[in-house]
Amino acid sequence: MSGWEYKVVPAPTKGVKAPGVKGPEARFANALETLMNDMGADGWEYQRAETLPSTERTGLTGSTTEWRNILVFRRVISTAMDDFEPELLPAPEDIADEAEPPQDTSPDKGTDNAPETTEAVDETDAAFTPGKGATDMLPDNGVEETSEVAGMTASLKNLASARGSKTDTS
What is the pTM of this model? Predict the structure, then answer.
């Protein structure tokens, strides 16, 4: 089984001069013929011409619709598609039995900028059990943290105590 690779190029908008070619229609046909012959020499087969809308900005807030003429070419993909065999995944029940705790695989592992503290917990916080998000925060990888965070994390407590001591001395 073979597949197809497609290429879309803009259609010529202006004719090309050549010896013996006279008139605007003949020059335009020459430009189109040259483009199609060049693509055919590279193994591309002409499929069709299309006119498609393209929304473009005008000014600061405006937009207009421009219609673009394109030419579609295709050629056979040289890789063998018969060798492709999809891998069957195990059923969801099997995955739950074999589940291991997630490991951080981010490239910046070990470069966590948040200081780790081992300060003692107040008696007011002793009864409180924080959610997973407050105890297992991942390093910032640019993706929003979606786990539930209940209570203050150690870094927030440190920040609050540092700001509290600054306001007390002033």
Answer: 0.46
- 78-95 pLDDT, tens digit per residue, is 766 666 677 888 888 755
- Amino acid identity, residue 117? T
Q: State whether residue 1 is helix, strand or coil.
A: coil
Are the beta carbons of 43 and 75 closer than 8 angstroms?
yes
Closest CA to 146 of 159, 133, 136, 135: 133
Dihedral sign computed on CA atoms, order 105, 106, 108, 111: negative
Other Cβ atoms closer than 10 A to 22: 9
| Burial degree of 73 (CB within 10 A; 0-12, 13-18, 19+) | buried
Contacts for 12 with CB less than 8 Å, ≥ 6 apart: 28, 31, 32, 35
